[in-house]
Amino acid sequence: MADKKLKVTLVHSTIGCVPKHRKIVEGIGLRKLNRTVELPDNASTRSIIRQVGYLLKVEE
After folding, report:
1. In what residue span(s) does the Large ribosomal subunit protein uL30-like ferredoxin-like fold domain sit (predicted)?
2. Residue 18, CA distances (Å) to 2, 15, 26 in order
3. In what order do the strands lie in the sheet with 56-59?
4. Has this prediction a pTM greater than 0.85?
5. Structural domains in the chain?
6. Secondary structure of the chain in HEC code, one letter for each residue
7. What pLDDT tens digit does each residue of the chain (60 aa) get?
8. Could you give the CA distance from residue 60 to residue 51 in angstroms, rounded to a whole number?
């Protein structure tokens, strides 16, 4: 069974957003605009995406 992955891309700048949200975005590995990381599809990743979803584009 293959593990599902999510492609997460930073599409909006973190300038002016809540400092906690900025740290969350940096913590998942997104430092510049239009950069993409692959994250495992699990409950903790989904909760992170729910908090800062206004900055991200998510593909399954």
Report:
1. 6-55
2. 36, 9, 13
3. 36-40, 5-10, 56-59
4. yes
5. 5-59 (3.30.1390.20)
6. CCCCEEEEEECCCCCCCCHHHHHHHHHCCCCCCCCEEEEECCHHHHHHHHHCHHHEEEEC
7. 468 999 999 999 999 999 999 999 999 999 999 999 999 999 999 999 999 999 999 999
8. 18
Q: Where do we find the tokens 């950069």?
A: 35
Token digits of residue 20: 């906690």
- In terms of phi and psi (left: phi > 0; alpha: psi -120 to 50; beta: otherwise), the region of 2 is beta
